[in-house]
Amino acid sequence: MSTIIHLPKGTRDILPSEIHKWYHVEAVIRRLCDDFGYREIRTPVFESTDLFVRGVGDTTDIVQKEMFTLTDAGGRSLTLRPEGTSPVVRAVLENGLYAGPLPLKVYYNPLTCYRAEKPQAGRQREFHQFGVELFGAATAAADAEVILIAYELFRRFGLAERLLLKLNSIGCPDCRARYRQALLDFLRPHAEELCETCRGRMERNPMRVFDCKSEICQGIAAGAPLILDYLCDDCAAHFEQLKETLTALEIPFEVDASIVRGLDYYRRTVFEFVSGEIGAQSTVCGGGRYDGLVEELGGDPLAGIGFGLGIERLIMTLDSAGYEFPPLPGIAVYVGMTDASLDVLTTKLVTSLRRAGISAEKDIVGRSVKAQMKYAGKLGVRFAAIIGGDEVAAGTVRVKDMQGGEPFEAPLDRFAEVIAEKL
Ligand code: ATP
Ligand code: MG
Question: Fewer CB atoms near the end CB (10 Å): N or C, the chain?
């Protein structure tokens, strides 16, 4: 016997026994996006590597250590998408979507993402994101709308009180230039203590230290100057307005100046929703404004803001909150037979049920009548019937109510109609 081949490290099967959770989450998300006027977009699983190097940024953890990159037969470098924003921006440019009515509102759900990280609870190499991207609106009201989408999703799941919204502004290139200098002045004396990655990218992008997972880097970052003290007047006013709007909408938040987000292209507003219940990998949703990205990827300037939300982490949060996912409907009817010669007739009967929207199963294994009834019991069907020679002769079959109701006769030529009336 040959040995079984296991799934690759950091990946997971989503089994029939848990698929109802995914269907439910996906359906709630789709409804939410419909309610907010967002339309779904689907992009390829792989893109040119350059897209992520430019769109995510070559000083980020994603580009420096986490990409699954391959070379195709033509020598082109391709990368499995680690995130959804840069592919969406590429699609917006490629298809000229910026020329349609603005703002442009799109979402993806669920999008598989690939990152070569160390697998642990809440961190996989293949995982799924729901995300929204809003283009052509640079106002604080647009920031509030995007945050409100995530908040409303959590509210619909009864999680609003279990997740904390953390908010920050990382300013614009103007404020960041002044801040960068202050941060560098602070970090340089610590350079030897920083992890190798942070040391290597410190001069080019010192803010990355806030996002580093190393405890030593985090300890150093805790004493660093904060971007909020360096915002220009416009960025400060934008941030004030967003905070006022969220307060007026009664969306609780906490300003956390250490949130800089992992991607290079963010401007001004950045935010995360953090769960207190799913362990160390607690950020369920992260997002922010990326007004420079469309230009970075070759387009005319176009404001953008969005978020990515980890569906595995959302389901973990729902599970730990004891959320009751609606189960999938079971099989309604089992039609058995006494003899294989009745197979075609039995198939026609279950087909009439299925066409009437009533789920039905029949024997395809060649079981005895007793074993068929036992199987019907395991399926948990509502009704079961066995077709035999007598039933064919009489043109009618006795249907057993497996949930304790009275048995009844159903004529074979009106089988689906009679069952439908009883369901
Ligand atoms: P983290 O700090 O946990 O590494 P990140 O900043 O890299 O997160 P984003 O790029 O903002 O994450 O992705 C958005 C969301 O996608 C995260 O908040 C998280 O819920 C989810 N996510 C990111 N990486 C993973 C992963 N490896 N496995 C499962 N979910 C993930
Ligand atoms: Mg990460």
Answer: N
- Look up residue 281 and give its two tokens: 């990998």
Kindly state if the Cβ of 124 falls inside 6 Å of ligand 1: yes
Same domain? For 305 and 368 the reply is no
Nearby residues of 319 by Cβ (< 8 Å), 6 or more positions away: none
pLDDT of residue 260: 85
263/139 same-domain check: yes
Supply 359's token pair: 């789920």
Residue 297: pLDDT over 70? yes
Check pLDDT > 70 for residue 262: no
Taking only the tens place, the pLDDT of each residue in 216-244 is 999 999 999 999 999 999 999 999 999 99
Which two tokens mark 33?
A: 């996006």
Q: Taking all residues of the chain, what is their mean pLDDT, rounded to a whole number?
A: 95
- Residue 282: name the closest of 259, 252, 249 by CA: 259
CB 362 less than 6 A from any atom of ligand 1: no
Report residue 98: phi and psi, to 5°: -65, -20
Pair 289, 313 in one domain: yes
